[in-house]
Amino acid sequence: MTTITDLEATTTVNATPAQVWAAITDLPRMSSWSPQVVKTIVLGQVKEGTWFFNINHYGWKHWPTTARVVRFTPHSDFAFRVTENTTVWSFQLEETAEGTVVTHRRETPTGISALSRSLTKVAFGGEEGFTDELRTGMATTLAKLKADLEK
User: Fold this and answer.
1) CA nearest 70: which of 50, 52, 56, 55?
2) What are the tens digits of pLDDT across the range 34-83?
3) For the segment 101-129, what is each residue's pLDDT rounded down to a tens digit?
4) Contacts of 113-119 spanning 24+ positions with Cβ under 8 A
5) Taking each helix axis from N to C terminus, what angle separates 114-124 and 127-149, rounded to the nearest 10 degrees?
6) For residue 118, what are the CA distances in angstroms to 13, 42, 106, 124?
7) What sign for the dihedral angle of Cα 111, 113, 72, 49?
């Protein structure tokens, strides 16, 4: 079986990079866009090194994660590493004539933790199906972000 690792979704938002940046770094707002995030609690001001907690869900299943901001380049690049599975989730912003291109990624620079792979198999029916759900969720997140910022 092939291990599925890096994922990516992109959209163009009719807003400035500063407007998009303000939204994506307001981490408690993520639950209004992401179909998986229920709640986010940030420990302090969002900047490189900041820790936060998420309550996530998939169907009726709920679980907590912790994450730390690992990249914080205003109006350009925001990323955090999830402790439990070692994945890095990011948003890259690029200004264009049409607004801001937002690229949402899930990267696996050190792979996915063995614990996470095992739990995905047992609790979520396997990596392939759960990865499809993540892909769909990333596209949904961007579509809702876009709709919110273009109101």
Assistant:
1) 50
2) 999 999 999 999 999 999 999 999 889 999 999 999 999 999 999 999 99
3) 999 999 988 888 887 887 778 777 777 77
4) 113/84, 113/85, 113/86, 115/84, 115/85, 116/84, 116/85, 116/86
5) 90
6) 37, 28, 19, 10
7) negative
Helices (H) and strands (E) in the chain, counts: 3, 7
State CA 84 to chain mean position distance. 14
For the sheet with 88-96, list strands across it: 7-13, 99-107, 88-96, 77-82, 61-73, 51-58, 37-43
Q: Domains in the chain and their CATH numbers?
A: 7-149 (3.30.530.20)
Chain centroid to Cα 80, Å, comes to 8
* Three-state SS at 109: strand
CA angle 3, 5, 7 (to 5 degrees): 140
